[in-house]
């Protein structure tokens, strides 16, 4: 089943719904959300994306990354992503900064990803149940370890995670 994204022009005005593969092939602006899931001891869940993902396969990524569905707002997408990707419900995501634009161009793969993103964080000490079609592995990392690993091997991490570390005041 083809997934459709709401797309936007350079000024952020709606530009219509377009099939996911065309959005990434032609570099159309679309919306996405990141959720950083922390435990109370300060460690954060880092996921390895499934190897068959169309964008950044097998890369390390934020706890939850979700494209918005048509008509959905950022917070609703954060709730949905937590439930679908990690089986986590009943917690309230807190916004980290405002909307920002993040791009990733990989011409060899015919991917030109241009996202309008909003990041969130949550604290949660309950059980998580990673969705295996989305997440290959899920690990708890300290922020110190994460920053060191990104500095050492940035290509192992998604552009979105790297942008979050650079742009946001993470807990």
| CATH-defined architecture | Alpha-Beta Complex
Distance between the termini: 38 Å
CATH superfamily, please? Nucleoside Triphosphate Pyrophosphohydrolase
Q: What's the helix count?
A: 4
Average pLDDT across residues?
A: 92
Contiguous low-pLDDT stretches (5 residues minimum) are none
As a percent range, the share of strand residues is 35-45%
- The helicity comes to 10-25%
Radius of gyration: 15 Å
Q: Biggest β-sheet, characterized?
A: 6 strands, mixed
Query: What structural class do you assign from the helix and strand content?
Result: alpha+beta
Tell me how many strands there are.
Answer: 9
Shape: globular
The string of secondary-structure elements, in order, is: EEHEEEEHEEEHH
CATH-defined fold name: Nucleoside Triphosphate Pyrophosphohydrolase
Number of domains: 1
Folded structure, characterized:
The protein has 171 residues and is α+β, with helices and mostly antiparallel strands. The chain has one domain: Nucleoside Triphosphate Pyrophosphohydrolase. The chain is 23% helix and 39% strand. It has helices spanning 20-26, 74-86, 143-152, 159-167; strands at 4-8, 14-19, 29-38, 44-49, 60-61, 64-67, 94-106, 111-123, 135-141. Strands 1, 2, 3, 6, 7 and 8 form a 6-stranded mixed beta sheet that branches. The radius of gyration is 15 Å and the shape is globular. The mean pLDDT is 92.
Question: SSE layout and pairings?
Answer:
Elements: E1 4-8, E2 14-19, H1 20-26, E3 29-38, E4 44-49, E5 60-61, E6 64-67, H2 74-86, E7 94-106, E8 111-123, E9 135-141, H3 143-152, H4 159-167
Parallel strand pairs: 3-8
Antiparallel strand pairs: 1-2, 1-3, 3-6, 4-5, 4-9, 7-8
């Amino acid at each position: 089943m083809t997934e459709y994204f709401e797309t936007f022009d350079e000024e952020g005005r709606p530009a219509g719904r377009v099939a996911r593969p065309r959005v990434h092939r032609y570099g159309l602006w679309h919306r996405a959300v990141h959720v950083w899931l922390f435990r109370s001891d300060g460690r954060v869940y880092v996921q390895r994306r499934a190897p068959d993902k169309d964008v950044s396969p097998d890369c390390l990524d934020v706890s939850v990354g979700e494209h918005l569905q048509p008509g959905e707002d950022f917070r609703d997408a954060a709730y949905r992503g937590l439930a679908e990707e990690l089986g986590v419900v009943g917690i309230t995501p807190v916004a980290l900064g405002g909307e920002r634009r993040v791009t990733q161009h990989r011409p060899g793969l015919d991917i030109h990803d241009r996202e309008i993103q909003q990041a969130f964080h949550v604290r949660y000490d309950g059980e998580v149940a990673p969705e295996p079609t989305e997440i290959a592995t899920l690990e708890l990392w300290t922020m110190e370890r994460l920053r060191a690993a990104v500095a050492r091997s940035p290509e192992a991490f998604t552009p979105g995670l790297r942008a979050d570390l650079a742009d946001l005041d993470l807990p």
